[in-house]
Amino acid sequence: xxxxxxxxxxxxxxxxxxxxxxxxxxxxxxxxxxxxxxxxxxxxxxxxxxxxxxxxxxxxxxxxxxxxxxxxxxxxxxxxxxxxxxxxxxxxxxxxxxxxxxxxxxxxxxxxxxxxxxxxxxxxxxxxxxxxxxxxxxxxxxxxxxxxxxxxxxxxxxxxxxxxxxxxxxxxxxxxxxxxxxxxxxxxxxxxxxxxxxxxxxxxxxxxxxxxxxxxxxxxxxxxxxxxxxxx
Length: 232
Ligand SMILES: Nc1ncnc2c1ncn2[C@@H]1O[C@H](COP(=O)(O)OP(=O)(O)OP(=O)(O)O)[C@@H](O)[C@H]1O
Prior knowledge:
By secondary structure, this protein is α/β, with parallel strands linked by helices. The chain is built from seven helices and ten strands. α3 packs across α4. The radius of gyration is 17 Å and the shape is globular.
């Protein structure tokens, strides 16, 4: 069941985003909206600007032009301190290669965002254990990322992205490094948990099977977005 609220305005909106990397114009006026609880797939060929769009929308990178509005706040107007706070409390991110901290166990990786938000170690580890359980990797909690399979590491990375109860999860090719079975497990876990928690997901993928998990799909072409044309 979709928890998308079609009556409210978007939770996150990028408007007219332009971003160049040197002489490469990665985004040329891209606009996109994400509603609360919505799972939106952004597809497009390699180099079409998908990751750049995610970085702009999540406040990791400032666009050259255009605006990003999150829950009524214009990200470009926020001081770095407030942006970091938003990234810690309201946003979760998952990348293609999990990017768990290699020196920490899976459990401590998931506990870390809670501790950064001020939770005590014991409470954070207990909550982290519950999240690992949800993603079917509690038994691997004391292992380090290098000792996990790719799929287990990605599920731990999902737990880490969701543990603080973010309103938006940004997932950049979260299954890109996995075989199809592990990819399905990761997507099922992500979609199930996001639905349950009412978390919106901006899902970047070039894989149509992954995009099929989303409520809606938009396609980046030449740095701008078009809704996917539905085949007749
Ligand atoms: N840090 C950077 N420095 C220089 N050029 C960059 C940088 N990041 C991205 N680009 C260029 O900007 C364009 C868009 O890149 P981006 O990573 O956003 O695309 P993408 O759609 O995510 O690609 P892929 O699917 O291959 O990951 C590409 O031409 C890329 O080479």
